[in-house]
Amino acid sequence: MKRTLQDFRKLIRYEAISVLRARWLGLYGVFFAAFTFALLRFGNDPARAAASLSSLVLLVVPMISILYASITWYAAEPFTALLLTQPMSRSAVWLARWASLSLALGGTYLAGTLAALAFEGALYSGTLLLLAVGVLLCLSFVAIGMAVSVCFADRMKGIGAAFALWMYFALVHDALVFAAIHAFQDYPIETPALVLMAINPIDLARVGLLLGLDLSAMLGYTGRILMKFLSGGAGPAITLGGLVVWTTFPFWLGLRRFEKRDL
Amino acid sequence: MIEIQGLRKSYAGREILKGIDLRIPRGRITGVVGPNACGKTTLMKCILGLVLPSAGTIRVDGRLIDPAGGFRRLIGYLPQTPSFPANLALQELIALLERLREREAPRKRELLERFRLQPFLKQPFGQLSGGTRQKVAAFASLLFDPPLLICDEPTAGLDPVSRVQFKDLLRSLNAEGKTIVLVSHFMNEVDQLASELVFLAEGRALYSGSLAELRARLGENDLERAIAELFAGESPRGTEPS
Fold first, then answer.
1. Considering its fold, how many domains does chain A have in total?
2. Which B residues 91-130 touch A at CB under 8 Å?
3. pLDDT in tens, A42-94
4. CATH dotted code for B2-231
5. How many angstroms separate the Cα of A50 from the Cα of each of A60, A163, A202, A206?
6. ipTM of the complex
7. Structural domain for A12, as ranges
8. Which of A219, A252, B14, B235 is an S-S bond match for A223, by CB 3.0 to 4.6 Å?
């Protein structure tokens, strides 16, 4: 662990420089700034603006994070091999890649959205929660994207699997949950629904935002069922904690795979 | 310098290396040749720790290769297709490598001059030509003056002038006492540079020994023909180099 952190400190600066200089990253930040600004300035209802912004964050942040992590992983593979011909641990390379991608994507989202919220005077506990959830989603989906990519030697298969996973979490999961709950409507469904929410980081984030922003409009089916369980003070903490688990678990799984992966 | 015993490697149920025993002697240039997909690059990557063997051991300068990678301080690696982050510049790469090795690169100035890389110090790698990137890779592999240099098809992307210069560089490095492992498709290149030869085919080392001994055994001066004879299975196995 000590060796990993030592190597990480040597590497992170250059990994971060390399990622942060990507030109499109600026566009990503401008996109969030412009969208947030437009919603707040031209929307009549602040609650609806927050709901729209939350929907955008739940869809776009995971998609960009998982795809960019996967694409970057494959593009950097020869350089990863070069790094590993130096006296350097694999875990440090893994940690530095995750940290630099998370810093770049999470930081850009945060800067763009925060700037627009501050400009419009819309900084309050709900929107701050939106910022935190967006950053956590970014950390989680970067880890998921890297973990998926390290399992596939073939670039197209890896990126395809990352995209399919995002599709599942963002779109398919709720439909399946709806079908399952409909099929078992005569039985108590609260505990299974809690489990179903926990296995989808986007659902976790959605419920967390729902609790913070008090927005029933953006409830997914799973979220609606769980609202009554998580509406106490511990609700946001539980969902944010779930997102932390959704970051550390794929990070750890991916690292285990990377340590045995041939390059 | 490198001792390999019983090295095996399988990918998806297919055995690429089928029990390789080799000794690559110190202070010589050893050419590693063989037909496509015979396991040359896999063998080199096993030595570097990039590919994890299914069985067998590899020792570099007596040190068993391990995941911690300390043995890599002894090795400079020149890959077949070098690639660097498009947004980093050469001077940043040098700084990164110096940080990773925790010391200043001893041959930095000399190598920058030799490869004529000073004009490219601040230019992002994304703006450099393939040939220049190949030179950067050669530069990086020699930066810390390693006693062992592993070159995988090092001249494949170079123009004829750079190719000649690179061969001269390998000769001079060898004259300094460095051990060089040269993986190449170009038989004439191996013939010109190497004194030792490893011939791989179908995952096995069909010959490892000195080039002079191979020629003497087969009565064949032309290396390409000698290799063809070996491949046809008409020759005895070579002896291990001393």
1. 1
2. 92, 95-97, 99-102, 124
3. 877 777 888 889 999 999 999 999 999 999 999 999 899 989 988 888 999 99
4. 3.40.50.300
5. 15, 27, 17, 12
6. 0.83
7. 2-260
8. A219
